[in-house]
Amino acid sequence: MHSSLFLQEPKSKDFIIPQKIAHRGSSFDAPENTESAMRMAAKHGAEMIECDLQITKDKEIVIFHDDMVDRTTNGKGKLEDFTLAELKKLDCGLWKGSEFTGERILTLAELIKLINELGLKANLELKSTNDKTAINLVKKTMEILNFLDIKPGKIILSSFSRLCLLELTKYTHPYKVGLISKKWIPNIQNELKKYGCWSFHVNHKFIDKEKVISLKKFGFKCLSYTVDDANAMHYLWSIGVDSIFTNNVTLGLYDKIACIAI
Ligand code: G3P
Ligand code: MG
Question: What is the pTM of this model?
Fold first, then answer.
């Protein structure tokens, strides 16, 4: 069986994915999902960032990871119980260091403006806690992306939530879609086809070469999260993983091994 290494091969004719994605921005050094984290990611040489999208009480889309605001802001309570105006009053930088004091939660529109300015691509992860928020989260996200008319080759939409993925199939949009999973799922190609996915984003602890090969046989990309160890990164690239989410994009080399031909 023929097998050879390709260097710096584009992974897709219409979406070129970099080997590393700055998870929540450069979140190792800056407060996650903030303007500082995105600016630092660009400064660190990242070509793409990942961030988390949630819907507020007044149906605005913000960039925020946890269900609760407690860990990463000076507020308390569930994010979905806050309006955007209330969230904008919170400090989401201080917890990471006094130099980040005054950092504000970004809206999706602000994030898009920022990545355009910085020349970054983005993986927008749709996070919803229940069915109602999933429907509104997808609807509002699509409205904002359509309004901003961002280039399709800059965005991947992804979610753990099957409902979000199902909702996405109801819209005509030009973006790549990925299904995220905490573990490997046998015959995942069936779900990926069902939701019109381009990629499978799986916890790095649950993949090996055979699994990557099985995914690629069906034409799907394999992305892996969250890896903050250079040796683990190089191993994952060597088994054909297309891109790795990391909190520290300064780790590992770019263009070491782009993929193994299978
Ligand atoms: O999108 C990959 C990764 O971000 C999924 O997990 O919890 O960090 O959003 P989490
Ligand atoms: Mg995420």
Answer: 0.92
Q: State pLDDT tens for residues 192-246.
A: 999 999 999 999 999 999 999 999 999 999 999 999 999 999 999 999 999 999 9
Atom of ligand 1 nearest to the CA of 225: 2
Report the phi/psi class of residue 109: left, alpha or beta, with left for phi > 0 and alpha for psi in -120 to 50. Answer: alpha
| Burial 188-220, CB ≥16 within 10 A → b, else e | bbeebeebebbbbbbbbeebeeebbebbbeeeb
Pocket around ligand 1: residues whose beta carbon is below 6 Å from it?
23, 50, 52, 65, 125, 158, 180, 201, 225-226, 245
What CA dihedral angle connects 117, 133, 221 and 42, to 10 degrees?
20
For domain 5-260, the question of CATH label 3.20.20.190 is answered with yes
